[in-house]
């Protein structure tokens, strides 16, 4: 059992802190956002993540998990300091390391005994060494030893707890093997495969993984666009190529592109790193560009189906970048909805869990529906942007009756063409012919 300070209690910090407590460690989660800490101290969970609330409650009750704004004392009381603060995209496309630097400097000022500092945040190659020097530059007693270890995070929002508890692999990048082992031992109860690397390789593994997955998504979306032009069906094509074990079926769902807090910023950051090194990563640039364009394919389909959008009311079902999360960061809805409004449409939105997040992003630019059927009633068309369970099991008869014009434009291929035929609904989707 180790004592751990989790610095940054967002999606990654809260899930990691809670799960590390669940496997037996004593964890204090800290954050500079005092409101967030206060909520958590009251047992309220600031994010939507299946299974998390119960696990937080269980581990708080067991005395293994607590929340504090007193970062200095959490650092003093802990063996390991996990850094899980955000690394958002800077205007240049680079990862903004401002939060990382301020944490490193804080740790430096409060280091009174040996600590292992673990970087969970996604950071550009070479950041581990920068963290080392930021800590060193702020230490009152430069004799105190410490290690900086890279341990990138691979959890997926929406299944983050399960992803941690059934961890597929653990990457540990360290200079000193003893420090690497100490970090690997924290995850030992999970019985996962651990890969020991240099800090640079560990940092690169995270970006390479996300860039590769983004490439698969942009690739299948480009194939979908071709399928539409040649009358092929991208669902059949994805199944056909995905059954080849060299390719694999994951991340071959055609749609309106990737979003979220990771793929967009991480692909940009890797591209920035390549540019900095004088390497033109043309493939990655195309992946990013294809994704940008893909966000707007539903607008084109809608205009084809409805003509001029001025004076129309469009229902948008699904706002989060994927199901089972309330995260709207870089969601395709953030690009598409303003484009619909700019084209003259009024927009009525509904999402099963992201409505309060949506109000922060869209304010009074859209109308907020209550439930699917109230949202679509009287609308000229309905768009599906997120494949929430609620949207893949719609009562199609009601949909047809409630829409002013029975047009559904589905950005996530929630329905088979066979199941949408014969309902009197004009159904447009991605990489497939339209049916009615
Ligand atoms: P987040 O924005 O949800 O959380 C970051 C938290 O850090 C916030 O609560 C913020 O208040 C806090 N913070 C900022 N500065 C701080 C400081 N100086 N001291 C203490 N707390 C501070 O971000 P996230 O989604 O959890 O992502 C964190 C990192 O993990 C990023 O680098 C991200 O790329 C990476 N990551 C995220 C995911 C994901 O699915 N969200 C998956 C893998 C990796």
Give your account of this protein's structure.
- The chain is of the alpha/beta class and 436 residues long.
- It has 3 domains: 3-197, NAD(P)-binding Rossmann-like Domain (Rossmann fold, 3-Layer(aba) Sandwich); 206-293, Orthogonal Bundle (N-(1-d-carboxylethyl)-l-norvaline Dehydrogenase, domain 2), CATH 1.10.1040.10; 295-428, NAD(P)-binding Rossmann-like Domain (Rossmann fold), CATH 3.40.50.720.
- It has 19 helices and 14 strands.
- The strands form 3 sheets. Strands 3-2-1-4-5-6 form a 6-stranded parallel β-sheet, with helices on both faces.
- α15 (355-362) links the parallel β10 (346-350) and β11.
- The chain is globular, with a radius of gyration of 23 Å.
- The model has no long low-confidence stretch (mean pLDDT 97).
- Bound molecules: nicotinamide-adenine-dinucleotide.
Question: Which helices and strands, and how do they pair?
Answer:
Layout: E1 3-7, H1 11-22, E2 26-30, H2 34-41, H3 52-61, E3 65-68, H4 71-77, E4 80-83, H5 98-109, E5 115-119, H6 127-137, E6 146-150, H7 160-165, E7 169-173, H8 177-186, E8 193-197, H9 199-230, H10 234-242, H11 263-276, H12 282-294, H13 297-306, E9 313-317, H14 332-342, E10 346-350, H15 355-362, E11 367-368, H16 371-376, E12 381-384, H17 389-392, H18 396-402, E13 407-410, H19 417-420, E14 426-428
Helix pairs in contact: 1-3, 5-6, 9-11, 9-12, 11-12
The protein binds nicotinamide-adenine-dinucleotide.
Nicotinamide-adenine-dinucleotide binds at residues 7-13, 30-33, 36, 84-87, 99, 102-103, 121-122, 153, 155, 157, 261-262.
